[in-house]
Amino acid sequence: MKKYLLLAALFISPFASANQCPDVLKFMKRKLNSQETVNMCSEYQGKTLLIVNTASYCGFTPQFEGLEKLYSEYKDQGLVVLGFPSHDFNQEDEDEGKTAELCELTYGVKFPMFEATSVKGDNADPLYRMLAKKSGTTPKWNFYKYLVDKNGDVVDAYSSFTKPTDDDFIKEVEKTLAL
Q1: Which of 106, 86, 75 lies closest to 32 in space, CA to CA?
Q2: Could you tell me the pTM of the whole model?
Q3: What residue ranges in 4-78 does DSSP mark as E strands?
Q4: Rounded distance, CA 179 to CA 62, Å?
Q5: Positions marked catalytic
Q6: How far apart are CA 140 and CA 88, in angstroms?
Q7: For residue 30, which phi and psi values (nearest 5 degrees)?
Q8: Can you say whether the dihedral through the CA atoms of 127, 129, 133, 139 is positive or negative?
Q9: CATH match for 23-178 among 3.40.50.720, 3.50.50.60, 3.30.110.170, 3.40.30.10
Q10: Tens digits of per-residue pLDDT, 115-129?
Q11: Average pLDDT, the chain
Q12: pLDDT of the residue at 19
């Protein structure tokens, strides 16, 4: 009998876990300049997320430095910054290798970066459609930020003008991490 209960638990467990995954994490995403894909649910469930659409040739591009600083300072407390390069505002390189090089070599980015993603309009990626629906706003420009708590709820959205080093923004991140 124990054998059957164990088999039933093994069979049911993956389905129960998948059903518990927040909608905002029910996606597979390809890492930047790689063929490796990430199951967002298994990788980021239970984490506080800062989801940011990025661009290589934008006046806000230096925010990569602040995002990396935020990530390195708070990752042990459960924060993950997720970067999604986007061509929607015509300031991203078509070559993923050049985007990756800029992130890694120029700004020392170690937080996860993913393939180029449409973040607005009819072609918006399903993740960004969901973020827009849950927050009530779409990215207005590059480096638009969505703060998502460990339960998968969108806490707030922040404009490109909100720097990752802004004291009030950091307080919101810390408050969300403490939930």
Answers
A1: 86
A2: 0.86
A3: 28-30, 37-39, 48-54
A4: 30
A5: 58
A6: 10
A7: -90, 135
A8: positive
A9: 3.40.30.10
A10: 999 999 999 999 999
A11: 89
A12: 61
